[in-house]
Amino acid sequence: MLTAAVLRLGSPVFFGVEMASEDVAVDDLKKAAEEVRDLGSTVLREAWPLEPLGTLRQAIEAFCDIRRRKILDGDTSPHARMYATHGIGTFGALVNAGLIHREVLPAMFRGGAFHRLCQAYWGGDDFYVAINRLGFRNHHPIQSDRSFIPYHQDSYTQDVRTPQVLNCWIPLDPGAGRDAPGLEVVRHPCRPDFPRKDFGLRSENAAYDNITIDRARIVEEYGEQFMAPEFEVGDGLVFSENVIHRTYVTEGMTRPRINFEFRVFSGAHLRPGVQIAELGPLVERVS
Ligand SMILES: O=C(O)CCC(=O)C(=O)O
Ligand SMILES: [Fe+2]
For the stretch 237-268, what's the b/e string if a residue is b when 16 or more beta carbons lie within 10 angstroms of its beta carbon? Predict the structure, then answer.
């Protein structure tokens, strides 16, 4: 296993208040961007201010509570049930439920480590998210293993108009990767459309069978190059669209964790011929 190049960056600017100095960071973030180019991923330490992460977590919890209650009350929407079982949802759903404002996204992004990493990685300052593609997950190892996601690539399900995406995976609970489930990435940018596992008539987890990649196949191609860091709240793991990753969970992990996936794309790197305006109202400019 490789150790991550770890960066300590201090708190970024939040809601117009400068919370820590930014000086050393520029060079470090160039290195971080190079690491993403070379190996597909990098760990950002103390990259997010805690206040908006708390706001986000509260909204997610409220959303999951409402969903649970609706299901108990006989809301039989198969979609809602499946999402509840797998502990997933999107930022867009939180907004629709009136639990959070879209403006939280640019406010937490601007001036922070991930923003500066995006600038170093793509150049320019023209960054967006699609609020229906910013996910959250709620994994409770004691209650169910249905939410655990096997090795996969996000590019399978990505909008083809935004082929390049950087995902900053952010734990919202303490202990991720230590006593709560974390995230494991393959330390390689990985090729698109990596061969998927053929289950035949068997199934490991029906919801994810069609995206599952076999570990042995990964090792064959990239060697034993996996990274599953331990996180503090405020840290993030950034990886590019083809990087193979999964929920990292071991037997000793008994605590639940909620996480948020902040997926950013660059307006200057859309599929040729595509204009940002045609991507629709779910797209939010974050810088
Ligand atoms: O949170 C997890 O366990 C998986 C996350 C994931 O697949 C993603 O962020 O794309
Ligand atoms: Fe994923």
Answer: bbbbbbbbbbbbbeeebebbbbbbbbbbbbbe
For residue 241 and ligand 1, the question of a CB distance below 6 A is answered with no
Instruction: Name the amino acid, one letter, at 78.
Output: P
Question: Cβ(137) to ligand 1 under 6 A?
Answer: yes
Provide the angle, in degrees to the nearest 10, between the axes of the packed helices 78-85 and 50-72: 130
- Please indicate, yes or no, if residue 277 is contained in any of the structural domains: yes
pTM: 0.90
DSSP 257: E
Q: Please compute, for residue 275, the number of CA atoms within 13 A of its CA located in the half-sphere on the CB side.
A: 2
Domain count along the chain: 1
pLDDT in tens, 179-237: 999 999 999 999 999 999 988 888 888 788 889 999 999 999 999 999 999 999 999 99
Give the separation between CA 144 and CA 97, rounded to whole angstroms. Answer: 26
Nearest Cα to Cα of residue 94 among 140, 136, 127: 136
Residue 241 lies in a domain: yes
Instruction: Give Cα 144 to chain centroid, integer Å.
Output: 21
The minimum-distance atom of ligand 1 relative to the CA of 148 is 3
